[in-house]
Amino acid sequence: VQLVESGGGSVLAGGTLTLSCAASGYTACMAWFRQEPGKERERVSVNGLDNIVAYADFVKGRFTIFKDNSKNTLYLEMRNLKPDDTALYYCAADYAFLRCRDYEFDFWGQGTQVTVSS
Predict the structure, then answer these.
(1) What percent of the chain has pLDDT over 70?
(2) What is the DSSP string of 9-54?
(3) How far is CA 2 from CA 31, 91, 104, in A?
(4) What DSSP state is assigned to residue 106?
(5) pLDDT tens figures, 27-61
(6) Helices then strands, each counted (H, E), the chain
């Protein structure tokens, strides 16, 4: 599975960005992670088995994850962005039931940078 992210950029606080992740091949689950320099990668949102979605507390109510199955593409709409949202955002995916169930992902994109300024 190959994943290609796009949609990152620079925006003022309060703005909106939508990230895209195009997948080649079958995926049973997909997710967005992010990582700031010097910090550990953190999970942002998951579109999991049976399209059940989950969000990290720090993005609930602001971010929406959704998938267009016809395009095999995952999206992350990010609203009311804050400077703390500045990070490299990664798309992840997997096709194995057990890994998806445990939110584990073997396939990763190259990342897309999101920068939010105040």
Answers:
(1) 100
(2) EEEETT--EEEEEEEES--SEEEEEEE-TTS--EEEEEE-GGG-EE
(3) 14, 10, 16
(4) S
(5) 999 999 999 989 999 999 999 998 899 999 999 99
(6) 1, 11
* Residue 72, helix vs strand vs coil: coil
Instruction: In whole angstroms, give the CA distance from residue 48 to residue 104.
Output: 10
Q: For residues 17 and 9, is the Cβ–Cβ distance under 8 A?
A: yes
pLDDT in tens, 56-97: 999 999 999 999 999 999 999 999 999 999 999 999 999 999
User: Which two structure tokens, joined as six digits, stand for 101?
Assistant: 């169930």
- Residue found by looking up tokens 């195009």 in the block: 22
Residue 84's SS3 state is helix
Q: CB count, 10 Å around CB of 60?
A: 10
